[in-house]
Design goal:
The complex is a heterodimer of chains A (about 170) and B (about 180).
Chain A lengths: L17 E10 L6 E16 L6 E14 L3 E16 L4 E14 L4 E14 L21 E11 L6 E11 L1
Antiparallel strand pairs in A: 1-2, 2-3, 3-4, 4-5, 5-6, 6-7, 7-8
Chain B lengths: L2 H21 L1 H5 L4 E16 L6 E17 L2 E17 L13 E13 L6 E14 L10 E12 L2 E2 L4 E9 L1
Antiparallel strand pairs in B: 1-2, 2-3, 3-4, 4-5, 5-6, 6-7, 6-8
The chains are: A mainly beta (about 170), B mainly beta (about 180).
């Protein structure tokens, strides 16, 4: 699967996808290498069941993926966000706001790199406050955080553009 | 030709046959994969800003980096495993502990990355590996609403398939969820 062209799991239900894609070659500073930058923005419908809380989570997730590469270097930066995801039947608000980055430099011209990354999924009350607001002078909010992991795989092949895909997510309860 | 020369000639022929055999692709494909393991413990002791309450946290932990370098007939593979755990206490900007009623922070995670090189061992390979940790107060009964994310970036350098140095802790970034 090309990156985010057919996402799975939390970002699986592709009911609404808006993608913007741009490539901008530039000369790497201090060398003769040409660096290419690609950016991908996507809004993805989320329709996922949480085994941690029992909620069905729906909403629109947003991901921003930036990829830079030259003949010797490859960098990625992934930002995942969902600020208005809702859980049913609890009515809780779920949020994701995470970023991960990778970088490789090598003399090899052909290689495949798979790297694991983790995002924190947490829930709040629909109003934006925490699920169980602490009473004055006390601390009462429960810990029911969860995470999901993605494995991002990039195939580097001489003479071709890098191909980055992701698999997952895999959920883990706190 | 005497017996000694005959034996010598036989030995030479056998050596040539063996040399040509091990150089053949068929023989190479039968070689079992060989793996060399490396491991490093990278300490983390750092005062970081607490993005949720405006204070500071002294993080104390260890990142265990396990590397497996495998050579086989299909190429070369580098598998890196990173497992980290630690604690955090409330401190001043200079690292002096602050007495609070709050429990200390804890974190615990593991990540991995695998790189395969079909053309064999690269002369040079460098990679980053990020641990996406979450610092949460050590309590099963309540939350203090000041848990936060900590991304720790390590850089690893390999020359000719072997670690060139101990993995380097490159940066630590935090964010309040």
């Amino acid at each position: 699967m090309m990156y985010r062209s057919s996402p799975q799991g939390l970002v699986a239900a592709v009911a609404f996808v808006v993608a913007a894609f741009a490539a901008a070659p530039a000369l790497a500073s201090g060398s003769d290498e040409v660096t290419t930058t690609k950016t991908s923005d996507q809004n993805t419908a989320i329709n996922e069941h949480s085994d941690c809380t029992g909620d069905d989570i729906t909403g629109i997730g947003h991901s921003n993926f930036v990829e830079e590469y030259s003949t010797t270097m490859h960098k990625t930066r992934l930002h995942e966000e969902c600020s208005d995801c809702m859980g049913y039947p609890s009515g809780a608000q779920y949020q994701v706001n995470g970023q991960s980055a990778t970088e490789t430099k090598t003399t090899a011209r052909n290689y495949t790199d798979s790297v694991e990354t983790r995002f924190h999924l947490f829930r709040k009350q629909a109003t934006g406050s925490f699920m169980v607001p602490p009473a004055p002078g006390t601390i009462t909010q429960k810990n029911d955080d969860e995470f999901y992991r993605l494995v991002m795989t990039t195939v580097i092949k001489e003479g071709h553009e890098p191909q980055t895909t992701d698999t997952g997510p895999q959920f883990e309860c706190k | 030709m005497n017996t000694h020369n005959t034996r010598l000639l036989g030995l030479m022929v056998a050596t040539m046959v063996f040399a040509s055999l091990i150089a053949s692709p068929a023989f190479a494909q039968t070689l079992p994969p060989t793996t060399v393991n490396y491991s490093f413990d990278v300490p983390l002791a750092k005062v970081i800003p607490n993005p949720c309450n405006g204070g500071f946290t002294l993080v104390n932990g260890t990142a265990h980096v396990a590397i497996a370098a495998t050579t086989s007939s299909t190429g070369f593979e580098l598998a890196v495993g990173l497992s980290g755990s630690g604690t955090g206490i409330d401190v001043s900007a200079t690292g002096v502990p602050i007495i609070t009623s709050l429990p200390q922070y804890i974190y615990d995670s593991s990540f991995g990355a695998t790189t395969t090189f079909p053309d064999g061992v690269p002369d040079y390979f460098e990679r980053t590996l990020v641990a996406n940790d979450y610092l949460i107060r050590n309590s099963t009964q309540f939350s203090t609403n000041d848990s936060y994310s900590m991304n720790t970036t390590f850089r690893l350098v390999f020359t000719n398939g072997s670690p060139a140095a101990v993995p380097v802790l490159e940066s630590v970034s935090v964010a309040c969820d």
